[in-house]
Design a protein that fits this description.
Chain lengths: 142, 150
């Protein structure tokens, strides 16, 4: 029986830039930041209220795991904005939207009433996009 | 409904402005009057709005930010007294008391735990990385890492 998600990966173009985006803009906490070879770090962050989930900010670099052709395909998907990485939850979507926007986060969709509740969408510095939804979207009893 | 049309957009912007004021000035001797002024609200109206949005009063939020920042300072090897003054506390005892109430540990115990964890990660970094990542990336083939884990 699977009990929980411990690590998940967000593929990034540049770890320095991703570090700045996820910590200084989104307010995530760094869990691990350790050098792993010449150009790579083991860099993981967690959302403030979810310290047990480590998000691995993994660079798309040519190496053992990603041959050049694969890395190029992944970079192209990022550039085209085709990599959707999930839903981030917040308490108040309008306040979160205003704060992130003031910090320079690029929104693809402002808070909008949908049949499932209010939703916004933003992208990170690499081009990954995320849905942003208030907790209330997931706690409806009807 | 888009951003420019949602109800209370100007109110939200002012509350967020106050929140960012706290985030940027937590180390200064600020209080709810300064913060309400920053957002152009009357004090009591402001406290109510802030709590509606963030679930904490401005003062509770300020204290939470100070403790979080203190944790970061301690994680970066600052001393307890340096962390205390760096986050705007004048009294070490009130800082330590609040820190323990929020985190469950005194600042000095927290500092020791962080130093110990940092030492362990420096000595054997691969112990803190899931094996699938190590194997797929060939990090275990790196002689330097093997030496560090010995």
């Amino acid at each position: 029986m699977i009990t929980r998600l411990s690590h998940t990966t967000i593929f990034v173009r540049n770890q320095d830039s991703a570090y700045d985006f996820y910590t200084n803009k989104l307010g995530f906490k760094v869990v691990d930041d350790m050098p792993m070879g010449k150009d790579t770090r083991w860099l993981t962050v967690s959302p403030p209220d979810q310290p047990n989930l480590e998000i691995v900010l993994f660079p798309i670099t040519v190496g053992k795991m990603y041959p050049e052709e694969t890395a190029n395909i992944m970079l192209e998907l990022l550039q085209k904005g085709k990599l959707a990485n999930g839903v981030f939850e917040c308490n108040d979507i309008y306040a979160t939207y205003e704060e992130l926007k003031s910090k320079g986060v690029e929104f693809l969709k402002a808070p909008t009433e949908e049949f499932y509740g209010v939703e916004a969408q933003f992208k990170d510095d690499s081009g990954n996009w995320f849905s942003l939804q208030p907790k209330s979207n997931f706690t409806k009893t009807e | 409904m888009t951003t420019e049309q949602y109800p209370g957009v100007h109110m939200y912007r002012r509350v967020v402005r106050a929140k960012l004021f706290i985030d940027n000035n937590y180390h200064e001797p600020i209080n709810v009057d300064n913060i309400a002024d920053e957002a152009y609200f009357s004090k009591f109206h402001f406290i109510r709005l802030f709590k509606n949005v963030y679930g904490k009063t401005p003062n509770q939020y300020l204290m939470a930010v100070r403790i979080e920042k203190a944790k970061e300072f301690l994680q970066s090897d600052k001393s307890v007294s340096e962390a205390c003054t760096s986050v705007g506390f004048e009294s070490l005892s009130s800082f330590s008391g609040l820190f323990k109430k929020v985190t469950g540990s005194t600042p000095s115990v927290f500092l020791k735990q962080q130093q110990s964890a940092k030492k362990a990660k420096k000595k054997a970094p691969l112990k803190f990385v899931p094996g699938c990542f190590i194997s797929n990336n060939g990090w275990d083939e790196n002689g330097n890492f093997r030496e560090m884990t010995d």
